[in-house]
Amino acid sequence: MTTPTRSSAQSHADASVQPTTMKAAVYRRFGGPEVVEIQDVARPEPAADEILIRVQATTVSAADYRSRSHDVPAGLLIPSSLVLGIFRPRRPVLGMDVAGIVVAVGERVERFTPGDEVLAMLGSRFGGHAEYAIAAATDAIAVKPRSMSFEEAVSLVFGGITARGYLNQIEVKEGTTVLVNGASGAVGTAMVQLAKAAGAHVTGVSSKGNAALVASLGADRTIDYAVRDFAEDGSAYDVIVDCVGNAPVARVRNSLNPGGAVLLVAGDLRSIITAGRQSRRHGITVITGPGPHRSEDLEYLVDLAGRGAFKPTIDRTFPFDQISAAHRFVDGGHKRGSVVVNVASVDR
Asked: What is the DSSP string of 299-338?
């Protein structure tokens, strides 16, 4: 028996009443926040296996900063340029995450229908800094909890799914000791909460000004990096997470318990290349990437948030027409959690 599929008219149910253009934050050259401008561009249309989302909120992440400025970890300029572009941006609209409303779906999409409120990780295809964004049916997408605003929901995505992707590759359980270096950023705040939810004893490294935030998210102990070097104080951990880029294996291996793991969220090319050798030499696990983004991980974050075990951490929210100011703030390198952009505020 043949399973019925949606007709084209059903799949694109309200496309006829949607505009053919949209506002988007576009950058045509690499540089500072001033290269980002709001422009009118063609509205995308979903292919058979894609979803069109009317974006309500997105974030400006560290990935957006690195992409826009072409400031990437040491040794990664050439490989990153294959994705980002060499002389000019290949993807002129940034934004790796969105929360919004489904307005149209392709004929092969079965999980979502127009009107669904969702959050999604678009990944390296970007496109979230616009009124409308395309997500593939295979992307990490979850239904937005009705109890959360779009701004709160989108703040879960980038940091949460990145942290979850790293933690999926090791075992964190009751009593595991975890240190998070850079515990106040989007990924760091997520790492603290996810490790705590798994039963770990968590130490967060941050500035003194962010210690209270880190503790409120579940850290059992905080370290002010300006006062004490965690790699030199004699403490040892089962897992060390580096969200800053200044804690390579060579620096922290003596702070690891036997058989421990280092998660290099902000590792450079040297760290990636030597990961295997370091693992064998020191009898540890070195993880250099988060793995694929999965819907089940996003759904796990939503479930935790619904139970109060994962809190949205938003530093501040900018209206869409001030997105260049959001970039400028992120460039400062001191954001706490996520910097959210309210796309629904766009003035047409």
From this structure: HHHHHHHHTTSS---EEEEEEGGGHHHHHHHHHTT---BE
Q: In this structure, what are the phi and psi dihedrals at residue 177, rounded to the nearest 5 degrees?
A: -100, 125
Residue 279 CB contacts under 8 Å (≥ 6 apart), including other chains? 285, 286
Q: Which long-range contacts (CB under 8 A, 24 or more apart) does 286-289 make?
A: 286/249, 286/261, 286/262, 287/166, 287/169, 287/170, 287/261, 287/262, 287/263, 288/264, 289/165
Would you place residue 235 in the very low, low, confident or very high pLDDT band (cuts 50, 70, 90)? Answer: very high
Total residues belonging to the chain: 348
CA–CA dist 279, 287 (Å, integer): 9
Mapped onto helix, strand or coil, the DSSP state of residue 105 is strand
Task: Dump pLDDT digits (tens) for 85-119.
Answer: 667 888 999 999 999 999 999 999 999 999 999 99
d(CA 311, CA 280): 37
* pLDDT at 81 (0 to 100): 63
